[in-house]
Structures are given as structure tokens and as C-alpha cells.
Amino acid sequence: MSNYPKPDRAALVEIYRRADLIKQNDEKVIREIKAGRLVTPYYSPRGQEIIPSALSASLTDEDYICTIYRGTHDMLAKGFPLPELWGELAGRVTGSCKGKGGTMHLTYPAKGMMVTTGIVGSSLPIATGLAWAAQLEGKGRVSVAYFGDGAANIGAFHESLNMAGLWKLPAIFVCQNNLYSEHTTFADSTAVERLSQRAAGYGMPGVTVDGNDPEAMFGAAKMAIERARAGEGPTLIEALTYRFNGHVMGDADRYMDKAEKAEAIAADPVPRLRQRLLDAGVAEDEIAGIERANAEAIAAAVEAAYAADLPDVAELKRDVFAHEIA
Amino acid sequence: MSNYPKPDRAALVEIYRRADLIKQNDEKVIREIKAGRLVTPYYSPRGQEIIPSALSASLTDEDYICTIYRGTHDMLAKGFPLPELWGELAGRVTGSCKGKGGTMHLTYPAKGMMVTTGIVGSSLPIATGLAWAAQLEGKGRVSVAYFGDGAANIGAFHESLNMAGLWKLPAIFVCQNNLYSEHTTFADSTAVERLSQRAAGYGMPGVTVDGNDPEAMFGAAKMAIERARAGEGPTLIEALTYRFNGHVMGDADRYMDKAEKAEAIAADPVPRLRQRLLDAGVAEDEIAGIERANAEAIAAAVEAAYAADLPDVAELKRDVFAHEIA
Amino acid sequence: MSETITETKPVTMIQALNMALADAMAEDDRVLVLGEDVGDKQEGGIVGVTKGLSSQFGTGRVKATPISEQAILGAAIGASLAGYKPVAEIMLMNFTTVAMDMIVNHAAKLRFMSGGQTHVPIVIRTMTGAGFGTGGQHGDYFEAWFAHVAGIKVVAPSNPADGYGLMRAAIEDPDPVLFIENMPSYWTPGPAPERGSRVEIGKARIARAGSDVTLVTYSRATNDCLAAAEALAADGIQAEVIDLRTIAPWDRAAVFASVEKTGRAVIVHEAVREHGVGAEIAAELSDAFFGKLKAPVKRIGAAFCPVPFSKPLETAFVPQAAGIEATVRGIL
Amino acid sequence: MSETITETKPVTMIQALNMALADAMAEDDRVLVLGEDVGDKQEGGIVGVTKGLSSQFGTGRVKATPISEQAILGAAIGASLAGYKPVAEIMLMNFTTVAMDMIVNHAAKLRFMSGGQTHVPIVIRTMTGAGFGTGGQHGDYFEAWFAHVAGIKVVAPSNPADGYGLMRAAIEDPDPVLFIENMPSYWTPGPAPERGSRVEIGKARIARAGSDVTLVTYSRATNDCLAAAEALAADGIQAEVIDLRTIAPWDRAAVFASVEKTGRAVIVHEAVREHGVGAEIAAELSDAFFGKLKAPVKRIGAAFCPVPFSKPLETAFVPQAAGIEATVRGIL
Lengths: 326, 326, 332, 332
Ligand SMILES: Cc1ncc(C[n+]2csc(CCOP(=O)(O)OP(=O)(O)O)c2C)c(N)n1
Ligand SMILES: Cc1ncc(C[n+]2csc(CCOP(=O)(O)OP(=O)(O)O)c2C)c(N)n1
Ligand SMILES: [Mg+2]
Ligand SMILES: [Mg+2]
Known about the structure:
heterotetramer, A: 326 residues, alpha/beta, Rossmann fold, six-stranded parallel beta sheet, two-stranded antiparallel ribbon, 11 helices, globular, C: alpha/beta, seven-stranded mixed beta sheet, 36% helix, binds thiamine diphosphate, binds magnesium ion
């Protein structure tokens, strides 16, 4: 991986800005839920911030992503506006989906966030379709499918990778391997040691990378994205990471190995990146400024969301079809 | 593959007996359909006879198979009785399924033929379940899933191989790669050159073998079956072969490469095996005797089928549930 | 090839659909066709609805796929989100069972779940119908499943001209449309469609006018209803046959107007009767016309079992004109 | 763990189902349990219906699976063909969409297609129901789909005791049974089941006797019907509430007997009303009681849209007691 492209200082700072935003946002969601002000199922991406933050550095608003219920990090990394995010989490009309989609279905096509799905594996076939469209259009767009390690064992994964490999689509399949699918470990659900090994079966390169390492993740992602833009076809990236919380908020997480978890949290990638920036000479002030701005933007979005209206029941008849139901 | 177990003379003769039965049976089905005496969709296995004939040499009646619409060869190789086969093809009460299942759903659990399916890919999950049962039971039974090259790209393939690999099930996944799925070539549907390459992604051995070579096929199958019986887990076998006819009888097959087809037919594996037997010193008489016995058995089964009754419409209410519908 | 068809001669459903696809692709280059075998240059697959399309429009827009129904529909959904209008083929209706997630959880719902930000203007073509001895996994009619799901439209033409017009309308529709084709009647010729015509989605057709009873039907069963109506007419019984054409949303106004007139209704479809589309229509009619009907609303569907193989069973499984006729006589 | 529950105290649905599984596994070692997370030693997965089972019966018989619904059901079907009695979990009903082939084309049909040589005595457990803000892909009721398929039975208990008894009966049933659990009412306590009791499949329960109107319902909606009945009783209106318990085949005799008495029927379910199970029952009642009903048969179901996220929408989406009450008053 020594031949991977490396992020420059500005890129690293930008990765940190996104990762910190995700981390702070996650902490805020959890606080708001615990305080009873926000009521929603919530799948925390804490611990997985670096993956989409480093990957999104090589994406534009024209590029597509499809992600999953545990996807606020993927969304925020790609620039999902906070007011529309919080409006949606709070079920308000100001939500990007007018409160109709919710936490598991965040969508913002204006910035290429096409689908967030609650069905394991289903981000892949749709992202494959978006990649097909990008190929037909021929403007160099790429399409990213985010999914978990558990999703790598469902049929849709297989069909999508074969189709993408066969058609040489500009797709990047990013498995965020956090070692758990709900209460089941990676080892208990997967017959292969490294998911990237499966790529060979679809005629595409596969790479396993430390997803919590911003440089490695940036490099692997940039390679894959450039490959896709150049018409050379898809890549499977297995990004190793860890889920700091249980599967869903409220989950007792007794099934998680305590030592393994403590170790992962001790190696929290977000403060680790912060330290790396400091070590590289980025001023504490600059970093603090980024963090402050993130905090303020989140706080403002939360307040705006709570102040906004809840949708009218007439919305049940709207957006079912193009024409409102009589 | 030099370390593969080899069939002895008796085994080779027995493989020929089955292959000839399949070939003659196929020719008879086609003649009967052309003559208008038999009315059924028919998916000829001509050209693929050796695969199940060589494999079944290492199976017992206790072992399970699940196969597909193009499966009369798999059935006959495992000992499906001809009268029940023809009864079913002719939709008679003497058919193994009383005429209710038909050509695409031949079933004969008394000899381990558990499911014949018309849904591409679906033989695999069910065979996986039978393998699970065999493992639980612990008596050394194995479970074989037959399927085509086209089926290797559908989700059920992936889920089944992962589960079988993970649980180390006594399953043998046998892909009969005849280079076509309906009117589409293998190359146009598959992102990898050799399907056996996919096995690595499921932690199981994968092997590509000339399915038309009885020794190679016998060896690969025996290895896999013994592995499974010994509790060492599943194997994926890609058996290379060729479909001598179009996908379904009546199919114009203009999409098939003429030269490729002519070459395959010139290398017809059944007469090739016959010649091999002769070369190995098996008497022409013995072979002719086998062929005559096959022909007679088929002819008797056909006549018996035509003489049998068609089912009564009351059958529509039977076998829907355990208890007849009122 | 579509060009060789003269419009004045009768055409088959296969030809009509082929024309519709060719015309739509020629008019709008966002229209794409994908599915198993559709790239086959010679035949366009086993049945040939897509014959000639890959030669005419190229294998970029006419895309042969692996046998991967989830990926086929994912490809269609994704491409539609990006502005294309894909027509995806799921060869037989029974094979929708390997891709229901894509249809039900995504195609039908993305508009609503995104609050109207995205939508999925795809057509899913699929064929079905008993009669060819294909047994229990190749002939089911599952339209009731999809009619039960908000966000997807369901159409099922009974004749080539409607097939053409509905296909053109379905491709232009801003919502996902499931397009059901009956296989055994594919080769039955019928009046040629007017090139460029559209059949509005949601509008039924009075296939035969009558005053004594309303037969509500769609797809191939329309022919059986017409045959029954002929037989009844010999005895002076005038059955009005309504070919729904669109199953969801069904044309309530047309059906209600007819039953208002006749006071009697029989719903006929090839799907299994229990929990079929006939149940919804019967329930609605019985409620709306409470106290005004001259007879109970009857429903006719296939027998409650898988499609059987053996010919006598297969024939008895599917509703036939004689049974329809008898049912009508029973409520007169 | 099931042992710690004393049978006299009220139990939740989770506890009742856990007891039923434990009791069935203890009695018959052919009973297997498989599904995502079911092997979790601590919790038995997120909800915990399978809690303690893997410790008690081992991870051979209680098998945690990958997220591979087709393989899960394939495993169950295959094992059942070999003589086992697997209880497979498809975590949420919306996830049946990735495995419909296994359910519809195989589990339901193998007995028929094999002419009775094989059969598939499996139970498919699945949960669903709106109310937790899980949005459009986690709360659908699709029971009408399965009721439309010949060869599979469908049950949906409304209370813990029935949950226990139906589970025991479903496991013993020689045919495949889809077992629908309502998630939001999982934690509601109810009278404890009698250990070892069975609730016969196909038999409804009169949850409340009454003479003025029949409310036909199942699953959680039973509670809403009972609440509506209470409110109506305050005005002297006596509603009979029939909890179907089994949706397919439904207890025609019980429902008919009640409507014979009351002359009025309202069918209530949480599934979208259009093409829901209510349609079949309404169609049957309207036909059988033609001219004898005092009012049209009414149907109440969820709104015709995906399950919405925002609380006020989600609440309005699901049928409520007040709406049921109003509908009843409208036909009196
Ligand atoms: C088809 C399907 N099956 C089951 C589920 C239930 N489920 C939701 S999340 C999840 C675990 C997914 O694990 P993984 O793919 O590793 O993603 P992670 O949650 O770890 O990010 C499961 C089983 C689902 N949503 N969809
Ligand atoms: C899920 C599904 N999709 C499509 C079909 C239609 N179909 C029947 S056979 C076939 C080709 C299968 O090819 P392959 O797996 O190579 O088997 P072969 O026919 O060559 O033996 C297709 C596409 C089907 N039966 N099931
Ligand atoms: Mg995970
Ligand atoms: Mg093939």
C-alpha cells in the first residue's frame, strides 16, 4: 500500500473536520435521545468516522452514495446539511424527507445521497444501478455503496459485485467491517477471513485496509475512485473498523468482547487523528476552531429542528405516487 | 489432479451404463415429443451425461441431491426409476409426483432425490439445509446441489456457499458449466473466468474439472464426497461441459456458436466413453447388452406411462396441505 | 424487427410490445431495456419481445444481464434515480420472488420515504400464466401482492393494442409500473395498435357492453369472459365485460358505473381466488352498492393450489368460459 | 431463561414464545431453531425471544446464521425434508422480501409438486408492526401475500397465551406455518399460558361476546378492537370481537356464526386496507349473507402508503380504537 496516494495537510485537516463533525453529532444525538427530546431508533456510527471522511475527500457532489441505517457518518462526510439532517431525525417538515423517511432513510440527492436503506445488502444493487447510469452518461461520476460486514453474506452483495465487475461499472463497494452484525460476530457469520478475498470472484481488485487510519483509507479510496472514473471498473474495499456502541441505542451489548471493545475505544480514531494533526504542526487553535464551528452548527440545527413543525397527516397521501391520492 | 482417485473398470462400465441410459432416454423424450405423444416443456441434458453418472458412482441412496429443470440426467444417474419418471413426464398417476409436479419437479425421496426446481439457484439453499440435517444426524450422508453456470450469479448461490463453508456442512456444490444460460453466454454473464475461483471466498476448496471426462469427474467428485463424509466441509466443483441442444426444446439456438457446437458434438462424451471401454478391453457384447437393457427399460416405461391413468381433478385439493381441502 | 410490421395487419402481443419498446427507445434516449437474454441479437431471448432491440439501439441501452434479479432491479432503480427510464424484465412472475425487496421496499417506497426528493420511474415487465405444462413455479399470478403495496402501479393488457398503449404509458409514467404479460396468449393475433398511441394508466375499457351483469376482469381472462358473454348472449343475457387493464389503481368509476346499471358483478382472474384482486373489488362493490345489488358479487379465480402439471389438472386449475357462464347464470 | 418464569404471573409475548420454543425443544429433539443472533448466549438477540435457548440446547440445535435469509429458509426447508422441525426466524416481515422464493415457490409447494412425497413442516417466525419510528422498511404487515399462496398457513397471536399455544401447534403442524409477531406489543404482559397447551390452528377465539356487530381481527389490532368495544359498551352497543388467531385458513365457521347473530361486520387489521385480508373476509361475508346483513361490511386497515417515520404520521397510519368505534357507529 506504499504506492497509495497520500492526503496532504489540507486534506487531513478536512478529514478531521468531517470526522469531528460526525463524532460530535453522534454524541449530540445520544444526549438528545437520553434526554427524551429526540425519539428515534439510532444506530451509532461512533468509531467508524474515518472511513467516509477519508473517502469523501475524493468525491464531488456529483458522485453518488447509497448507505444504510448506520449511515449518519457517511451522510455527514459527504456534506448532508445539518438542518435537514436534524429536521429528519426529529420528524419535522424541515427534514430532508419532510419527516417521512426518518433516521434509516436519510436522502439528499442534491448532494448525491440517493438512498439510505434499512434492508441489509440493498444499498449495493441500487448503487450498481447508479454506477450503470454514470457509465452511460460518461461524465466520470462514480457511485459508492456503503454496507456492513454482515451484508457481505447476503445475496444482493454477490449479484451486485458480479454485475459491476462484468460491466466494469464505476462503482466502489465499501464494506465497513466493524466485526459485528447485530449480536453476531464476524467470525460467526463469515466463511472467509478477509472479505476482500471475494473480489477475485468478481474480476475486480479487492483490498483490506485499516479504515480507522486516515492515510490508508484515503489512499485506498482514492485509488478505487480514480480507477472507477477512468472507466477501469469497480473495487471492493474492506475497511476494518469497530463499532463503539451496541447495534442500536439501548442495546445491552453484553455479547461484545469487553477487552476487544476497550482496546478499540482506547484507539479512538478521531482523537488519534487530532493528535496526528498536532504532531504535523497544525495549530491547536485551528483545530479548536473547527471543533467549535462543528459544535455550533450542530447546536443550531438541533434548535431549528425542534422549533419546526411536525408534518400534517395529509402527508400520508402525498409522495405515494407523483399525483396525490384522492 | 493426478492425486485424484480413479474409477476401476467396473466403475467405468457403470458410469457408461448410466450415461447411455441418460442419452437414450433423452433421445426417446425428444422423439416422443416430436411425435406429439408426449407434451411437456423439455430441457435436454444431452452432452452433460457424464457429470452425474461419474459423481453418482460415489453416492448411496441415503445421500441427497437437489437438481434443476434440466435434471433428468442427474435423476437417472442416481437411480430414479424409469416408470415413475415417464409416468411423471406424461402427467400420469403413476408418475412419482402423481403427475402434479411434472418435468421440472421430479422428486423421488426414496432414493434421495429431494427437490427438482425451476427457480434458478434455488437448489443450493435447500441442499444446504439437507447437508445441515446430515451433519446433525451424523451418519455420514452428503448432500449434492446441481446447478448451472448461470445460477452461479444469483444471490442464493452466495448465501448457500457461505453458510455451508461456515458450518463445514457435508455439501457438494456441482456447477454444470455448459457455457450458456438460456440465450446468454457464460462470458456475457460472469465476471470471473473460472467459477471455482469463487470457492476461496467461502473458505472451501474449489475445482474446475472436465465434466465430460469420466475419470476426472469421478475423481473430483469422490474427493469432494469423501471430504464431506469425513466432516471436512463442502466443495465447489465446476464441471465443464456443453449443452448439445438449445435451452428448451423448440429453441432455435441461433445464438449458439456453430463451430463451438459442432466441435462439442464431435467430442460427444458418451460414445467417447464407449470407445474407452472398448480400448480397455470391455467386450463389445457386454456394452451392447447394457445398451439393449437400457433401451428395453425405457421402452417399457414409456408404454406403461401411456397406458396409465391421468389424474382426477380431485387431486387439485390433495397435497396442498396434509389434510385434504374441503 | 419492429420495422417489418405493417400496422394494418393483426399483430401478436409479442409484436405489439416489441413495437412499443422500439418506439419508446427511438423517441427518448433515456429509455433503457435490461434483463436476461435481451441482448440476444438473433431472437431477443426465448419469446422475443425484445427482438432486434439490441441491434437497433446497441448493447449499451439494451443490456443483457446475468441471472441476478436483485441486481437487475437494483440497476433499474439506480438508473432511474439518475434520470433514466429503464424497462427491466423479470422473465416470469414467479421470479419476482427473488427480488421482492427491490420492488416492495425500494421501487415502491423511495418517493415517499425521501419526501418526494427521488422517484423510481421504471417499468418491470414480467410474464406468467398457466397452460404450457410448466408446473408449479412458472405460472402464478401474483398481482394482488403488488396491488397491496402503496407506491407501485400494476397493469395487465389483454390484447396487443392495449399492450402497446399501456407499455408506452407505463414507460412515461413517473411511478414504477409492474407490467404483467400473459405467456400462453402471446402469439394470439389482434388488431394492430395505432403507432404512438397511449392507453391511460388507471382507465378500464368496456370490452363488451351489456346490461344484465358486469364481468370485471383483466389479462387473458378477458378472453374467457368475452367467450362466456357470447354464450350468454345466445340466451339473451347481456353481460358487460370490463377489462380493467390497470389493476392498481383500478378504475373504480368505470366499474361502479357498470354495476350501477347491471346490479350484478362477477370478478374473474387467473390468480388463485382466495385473497386475489377480486376480493378487493367484491368488498368495495358490496359496500358501495349495499342494498342495491340484485345478486351477491361473485369471484372466480384459479383453484387454491400450486399450478399443476398434468394437462387435465392444469385445465381445471384455470378459470374457463364455461365456469364463468355458469356462475353468471347462477346469479340471474 | 424460561425456567425462571412462574406460570401464575402474567408474562409477556416474548416470554411466552421463549417458553414455547424451550418446551418444544425439550420435548422433541427434532425441533431446531435458527436465525440471525439466535445463538447470542447473553440476550438471544435484540428482542430476546430465543434467550437462553443456545445455552440450554446447544449451538447445534440453536443455530445463529449469517444475514442470508434465503439460506436460512433453505436450511430450514432442507432440514425439514430430512425429518427435522426447524423454527426459522426472519427477523422482520419486511425481510421476507429477500426470501420469498423459498417461502412461496418451495416451502408452500413442495408437498403438492411432489405429489405428497415430501412436505415442509417448518415454522417461520417473523415480527412486524408500526410504532417504533422505524420507518418505511420495518413495519409492514404482508400476511395477505401469504394467505394468497396455497400450501402455507399463517397465524398471528394477539396475546401471550395464544402465542404460546399457537407456537406449540405450529411446530407440530405437518405444513409450513408463517408465525407473525407484533413487535410493539411484545412487552405487554398478559395471562400466562398453561404449559403444554396448544391453540388449534384454524380456530378463532371470541375475545369478547356481543350481539350488535362483529369485529373480526387478529394480532395487535385485537387490542384496539377490544378498546373500541369497551367504549361502545358504555353506550349499550355490544360488539363481538373475534380474534382470528389463524389468518389462513381462517375460521369461517366462527366468523359466520357471529355475523349470523349480529348482522354486521367490521374487519380490522394493521396491514394496508387495500387488498388486505379484510377484503377476502368482506367479500365472503357479503356473498354468504347477501340480503341478510343489516349494514355493509366495513374494512379498516392502515393508510395506503409506506409506514411513515414522524410520530403524528405514524400514529395516523395505524388503525386506532377511535376510528374503529366511529366505523361501528356509522353502520348502526
Ligand atoms: C435483509 C435483512 N435482514 C436482517 C436485517 C436486520 N438487521 C439490521 S442491521 C443487521 C446487522 C447488519 O450488520 P452489518 O452488515 O455488519 O452492519 P452494521 O450494523 O454492523 O453496520 C441486521 C441483521 C435487515 N435489516 N435486513
Ligand atoms: C430466478 C430465475 N430467473 C430466471 C429464470 C429463467 N431461466 C430458466 S433456465 C435459465 C438459464 C439457466 O442457466 P444455467 O444456470 O446455466 O443452467 P442451464 O439451463 O444451462 O442448465 C433461466 C434464466 C429462472 N428459472 N429462475
Ligand atoms: Mg457490522
Ligand atoms: Mg448453463
